[in-house]
Amino acid sequence: MKIVDLRCAVIGRHPIVRIVTDENIHGLGEVEFTKPYLKPFVLHFRDALIGEDPTDVERVMLKIRQRGSFKPYGAAVSAIEHALWDIAGKAAGVPVYKLLGGKVRDQVRVYNGSIRRKRTGDQPEDYAADVKWMMERPEKFFMVKQGISFHSNMKTNVPDFHYGVRQPPTYHGAMDQGQISERGMAHMIECVIAMKEVLGDKVSLALDCGPGWFLPDAIRFARAVEKYNLMWLEDMLTGDYVPWVNPQAYRELTVSTSTPIHTGEQIYLRHNFKELIETQAVRVIGPDPADIGGIAELKWVAEHAYMHSIMIAPHGTANGLLGLGALINVCATLPANYIAFEYPSASDAWWEDIVVGLPRGQIVRDSMIELLPGPGLGLDIDPEGARKYLSEGDEGFFDRV
Predict the structure, then answer these.
(1) N or C: lower Cβ tally within 10 Å for the chain?
(2) For 14-31, what is the HEC assignment?
(3) Cβ(2)–Cβ(22) below 8 Å
C-alpha cells in the first residue's frame, strides 16, 4: 500500500486531514477548531508522504516528527499521525487500540470541559449556577472543569484583578500575566467555595487557571484551596500557547501543596515531558493527542508517567468528533494512572449528522463512553453530507484516487 495524496480541508472550523492510498483506503485526522489557519502547515508535508506505506506509521513519522513544535504547530504532525493509524487499522480490519497493544478497559471515562453555556457573569453565584447546570446534565459527568483567573474573564471583569499588562481579548492565545491582587485572590477563593457548595462530593471540580501566574501567587492559592479537595489546578505557570515548560518552578509549586498540579496540553513530543515527569514536577499531566505528536506519542508519555506515579488526564476539548475517536482508542490502552480525558463535543451541531460510527443516541452515559467497534479510529465522514460545508477549492477533498 502506498500514499498517493495528502489533502486538507477546513470543514466548519476544523482543518481535516485526509490521506489517500492506492488501495482506496483513506485515513482521517482532525485539528482543533481554534486552528483553522493550519491547513498550509498540513499540506507542507505532502511531498514527504507521497509514496510511503501508511501502515508503517513510525517509519513515516520519522520523516516529519521533528518538523512540529509546541502548540499550535505540532497539530499538523499530530493529525497526520492520527490519519496514518486510521489507515493502518482499516487495513488490518481492527480498531487502532488493537495495534497499540490492546485494550485494558471496555469503556473510557471522560470529564466535562467542553459542554457549557455562556456564564451569566464572573461572580461566585454565576459560577455556582454554571456548575449546577453542568452537574445536572444527562451525561452525569463525574467531574467538571471551570476556567478561573487568567483562563477566564475575571482578568478583565473583576476590578484590579492583577497588576500586569492587560491584553485585548480578541486574539486567541494572547497571555495576560502579572501578580494577582489581594482582591483578585479573595474573589477566586469565593468562587471555589460557591462551586463546592453546589457540587459537594458528588461531582469533582478541577480549575483551568492560566497560564499567567507567578510562583508566589500559585503557591498561595493552591494552599488556600487545599480543604476543598480539587481534582487539580491546571496550567498555572505555563500552558496553552506557551512554548516552554518551566519544570523547576512547577516542582516547587507541587511540593508546596497537597492540591494536585496539572499541565501539559501545549507540550509537543515525549522529550519535552521528560524533565517534568522525571523530577515529579506535577501530579497530573494532560497531553493532547492532537498536539503532542499523535496517539503513539501520548501512550509513551502516559507509560513513562505511570512509572513515576504521575496521573494522566488527556486534554481534548476542541478536538471535534474525529478527535474523539483518537482519544477513545488511545485511552483504552493506557495504564492505571489514567483518570479521564476531556470530552470534545461537536463544535457545530451538524457534525453529528455527518460523522459516521458514533454511538446511537447519547454518547456519554455515567461519564463513560463505550469503545468504538469500527476499524481504524472507528469514525468517518459522510462525503455527501459534508460537501455543503466544503470551502471553494476543496471540492475534490472526498474524491477517490
Answers:
(1) C
(2) EEEEEEEECCCCEEEEEC
(3) yes
- Residue 344 and residue 341: Cα distance in Å, rounded? 9
Q: How far apart are CA 159 and CA 183, in angstroms?
A: 8
* Average pLDDT of span 121-125: 96
The per-residue DSSP string of 202-237 comes to TSEEEEE--S---HHHHHHHHHHTGGGT-S-EESSS
Please report where in the chains the cell 457540587 appears, as a residue: 199
| Per-residue pLDDT band at 401 (split at 50, 70, 90) | confident
Can you tell me the distance from the alpha carbon of 260 to that of 236, in angstroms, rounded to the nearest whole number? 12
Cross-strand bridge partners of residue 106:
none
pLDDT of residue 184: 98
| pLDDT for the residue 257 | 98
Which grid cell is 162?
492583577
Residue 107 phi, psi (nearest 5): -135, 155
Query: What are φ and ψ of residue 19, in 5° steps?
Result: -100, 125
Distances (CA, A) of 8 to 68, 179, 389, 395: 17, 42, 13, 11
What are 292-301's pLDDT values in tens digits? 999 999 999 9
Share of the chain above pLDDT 90, in %: 95
100-114 pLDDT, tens digit each: 999 999 999 999 999
Q: What is the pLDDT of the chain when averaged over all its residues? A: 97
**Which pairing describes strands 233-234 and 261-263: parallel, antiparallel, or unpaired?**
parallel
The mean pLDDT of 192-221, rounded to a whole number, is 97
286 in Cβ contact with 318 (< 8 Å): no
Cβ–Cβ under 8 Å, residues 149 and 180: yes
Please state, in angstroms and as integers, the Cα–Cα distance from residue 206 to each residue in 102, 229, 341, following that order: 30, 9, 13
pLDDT class of 372 with cuts at 50, 70, 90 = very high
C-beta of residue 302 within 8 angstroms of C-beta of residue 335: yes
What distance in Å separates the CA atoms of residue 145 and residue 161, rounded to the nearest whole number?
21
Q: Check if the beta carbon of residue 79 is closer than 8 Å to that of residue 15.
A: yes
